[in-house]
Design goal:
- This protein has 526 residues and is of the alpha/beta class.
- The protein folds into 2 domains: 30-267, Rossmann fold, CATH 3.40.50; 314-525, Nucleotidyltransferase, domain 5, CATH 3.30.420.280.
- Helices cover 33% and strands 19% of the residues.
- It contains 18 helices and 19 strands.
- Strands 3-4-5-2-6-7-1-9-8 form a 9-stranded mixed beta sheet, with helices on both faces. Strands 17-14-11-12-13-18 form a 6-stranded mixed beta sheet.
- Helix 12 packs across helix 13 (409-417).
- The chain starts with 28 loop residues before the first helix and ends with a helix.
Length: 526
C-alpha cells in the first residue's frame, strides 16, 4: 500500500499527500485463517508475543476498509478500538497500531478527543488507485457502569484488545452499535443493486434480513484478541473455535456468527528475538500455570482460593479420547439436595481403575425433573445398563408435602423415577481423601487409577481449581475448611459419593474393593 509523492489529494483538506509509505505484512497461518473468515464477530487467541494485535491492526486499518471498497464501493468506515484501561490502551494497543499506521503519514490523531482520522491511497482489484478513509475512536472502559458512553456511537466495526478483561456488557453494547455506519439508507441503496430481492422490503424487514444473514451481507464486524482466557470466561464459550483450543470443550453452545481462532505456541517465534520464550520460561519457572497459559497457549482456570485436591494432573487424568462403556456395571453418584443437583456415571473396566464417563448438572432444577432427565439420557447412552446409585445422605432428610405428610428427595427419586439409592459417606474429609488417593495411584500398564472422559468439562474444570476452598477474609494464605458451594461442587460431591464407596473395603459396603481387585473376578474374566 502506497501513495505516490504529491499525486493524490487529501479528501478533507484538498492538500496533496506528500508522503509515500510502504510496508510488508505476511500473515501467520492462524492469523491468515482469521483474515479470511467472514463471520461477523471474530476472536483471535494466542500466547504473549504471538502477533495478535498486529493481525487485528491490519484487519481494521486496511483489510476491512479494502473489502468494503472492493465489494460495495464504500470507501469510508468508522470503528472503535478499545481496551479495559486507558494506560494499557495507550501503552500497548495504540502503540502497536501507530507502528503500522503512523499519524502524520496516514492522517491526524487528535489527543483531546482520542480520534484518529486516517486517509491513505492504495490499489483496488483492477490496480487503480483508491483513497480510503478510516475513522478510529480510541476508547477504554474498565467499569460496566460507564457502558452508556457507547450508546450513541454509529460504527462499522469494533476491535477489543485483551477482550477477556473487558466486561461482557461493554461487548454487548458495541455489538449493537456496529453496522450503523454508513447509514442504513446508504446500505439499502448499495445492497439492493447487488440483491434485487431486497428492493421490495420495508425498513423493518430489511433490517431483519441483514441481522439474519450477517455473513452474506457483511455490513458489520467485531474483532477481539486476547491471551488464553479462563475456561470459565464467556470468551471461551462464546465462539465456535475453527482451530480448537488445547483445553476442555466449552460448556455452552457458541453464539451464532461468532468464530474463534486459537494460535498454537511459537507460531510467531521468527519475528521475536532469539530465546524470547526460553527467557520467559526461566522467569516464570515457579509459576507453571502462567507458563501453561501465556507461553504454551492453554486456557486456564481462574483460581480464587485453594484447590480441594492435591493430586490432579490434567495430562495424566484426562483421557485423550472419549471413554467407551465396556458394558459392565455402572455406578452413579448423586448430589440430590438443593436446587443445583449433580450426577456422574462411572465404570471400572479394569481392577482398581475408576473411569468417569458422563456428567450431568443443572443450574436450577427440582430433583425429580433432573433425575428423570438423567435416567432418560442414560437409557440412550447405556442401553440395558445395570446401575448402583449412591447419593448424599442428606437426601433422606424429611421435607413436608402439601397434604401434611413427609417425604425426602431420595424417596421422591425412587417413587417417581424408579431409582433405588443407597447412602454414601457423609464425612467430607473421608470423601476428599478417597478421591485424592485415587488420583495418586496408578494401575496396570501405567494408567491412572482415575480417568476422566474429555467431554466431562465441568468435572475437569473443577479438578483444575474451580472447585476450591475460599480464602479467609483478612487472613491471606488461610483457607476455609469447606469448599465454595458452586456449580462445580455439585458434580464433585457426586464424584466423591461414588469413589469413596468403590474404595471402601468395609463389610457393610455393597461394592467392595475386593470385588474388583482380584484377577479371577468373574466379571472381569467374562
Amino acid at each position: 500500500m502506497e501513495g505516490d509523492l504529491q499525486t493524490y489529494l487529501h479528501p478533507q483538506t484538498g492538500q496533496p499527500l506528500k508522503v509515500r509509505y510502504e510496508f510488508e505484512y505476511r500473515a501467520l497461518p492462524t492469523v491468515r485463517l482469521f483474515h479470511s473468515c467472514r463471520d461477523e464477530i471474530r476472536c483471535l487467541v494466542g500466547p504473549v508475543g504471538s502477533g495478535k494485535t498486529a493481525g487485528a491492526t491490519i484487519e481494521v486499518g486496511y483489510r476491512i476498509p479494502m473489502m468494503y471498497w472492493n465489494r460495495y464501493g464504500i470507501n469510508k468506515t468508522r470503528g472503535v478500538i478499545l481496551r479495559n484501561t486507558y494506560p494499557m490502551l495507550v501503552d500497548s494497543t495504540q502503540r502497536t497500531f501507530f507502528e503500522w499506521f503512523p499519524p502524520g503519514l496516514y492522517g491526524r490523531y487528535n489527543k483531546n478527543d482520542k480520534n484518529y482520522n486516517m486517509v491513505y491511497t492504495t490499489m483496488d482489484k483492477q490496480m487503480k488507485p483508491v483513497t480510503l478513509e478510516v475513522e478510529i475512536l480510541f476508547r477504554s472502559c474498565d467499569d460496566p457502569k460507564l457502558v452508556e458512553q457507547f450508546r450513541g456511537f454509529e460504527l462499522t466495526w469494533y476491535y477489543i484488545d485483551e477482550s477477556d478483561e473487558v466486561h461482557e456488557n461493554v461487548k454487548k453494547m458495541l455489538k449493537q452499535r456496529i453496522g450503523r455506519f454508513p447509514k442504513q439508507q446508504d446500505w439499502f441503496r448499495v445492497l439492493t443493486k447487488m440483491y434485487p430481492a431486497l428492493k421490495g422490503m420495508d425498513k423493518e424487514s430489511f433490517h431483519e434480513e441483514l441481522r439474519a444473514n450477517s455473513e452474506k451481507y457483511q455490513t458489520a464486524f467485531g474483532i477481539e484478541t486476547t491471551n488464553p482466557p479462563s475456561t470459565e470466561s464467556s470468551t471461551y464459550s462464546t465462539f465456535s473455535w475453527h482451530t480448537p483450543p488445547p483445553g476442555p470443550k466449552p460448556e455452552k453452545a457458541p453464539l451464532v456468527g461468532h468464530k474463534g481462532f486459537w494460535q498454537p505456541p511459537y507460531e510467531n517465534s521468527q519475528n521475536l528475538r532469539p530465546g524470547y520464550y526460553d527467557r520467559l520460561r526461566e522467569m516464570w519457572a515457579n509459576s507453571p500455570d502462567w507458563v501453561a497459559r501465556y507461553i504454551d497457549g492453554k486456557p486456564g482456570v481462574t483460581l480464587r482460593g485453594k484447590s480441594v485436591y492435591n493430586n490432579f494432573h490434567r495430562k495424566t487424568h484426562e483421557a485423550l479420547t472419549s471413554l467407551v462403556w465396556t458394558h459392565g456395571p455402572l455406578f452413579r453418584g448423586w448430589d440430590n439436595t438443593g436446587h443445583h443437583p449433580g450426577c456422574v456415571v462411572c465404570q471400572m473396566p479394569t481392577p482398581r481403575q475408576i473411569q468417569i464417563i458422563k456428567e450431568f448438572y443443572s443450574e436450577r432444577e427440582n430433583i425429580v425433573s433432573f433425575a428423570k432427565r438423567v435416567v432418560a439420557q442414560c437409557n440412550v447412552a447405556f442401553p440395558n445398563g445395570e446401575y448402583t446409585d449412591w447419593a448424599d445422605p442428606a437426601g433422606w432428610q424429611k421435607i413436608s408435602k402439601r397434604d401434611g405428610t413427609f417425604t425426602s428427595n431420595s424417596e421422591m427419586m425412587e417413587e417417581e423415577c424408579g431409582l433405588v439409592l443407597e447412602r454414601s459417606e457423609q464425612n467430607f474429609d473421608a470423601r476428599v481423601n478417597a478421591v485424592d488417593q485415587q488420583l495418586m495411584e496408578m494401575v496396570g500398564g501405567g494408567e491412572p487409577a482415575l480417568l476422566i472422559d474429555p467431554d466431562c468439562v465441568r468435572t475437569i474444570n473443577g479438578f483444575m481449581g474451580a472447585y476450591y476452598y475460599p480464602e479467609t477474609a483478612g487472613l491471606p494464605g488461610r483457607f476455609g475448611d469447606q469448599p465454595v458451594k458452586n456449580g462445580y461442587a455439585d458434580v464433585h460431591d457426586a464424584i466423591q459419593y461414588v469413589v469413596v464407596k468403590l474404595r471402601d473395603s468395609s463389610p457393610g459396603s455393597t461394592i467392595r474393593s475386593r470385588d474388583f481387585g482380584r484377577p479371577d473376578d468373574p466379571l472381569l474374566m467374562s
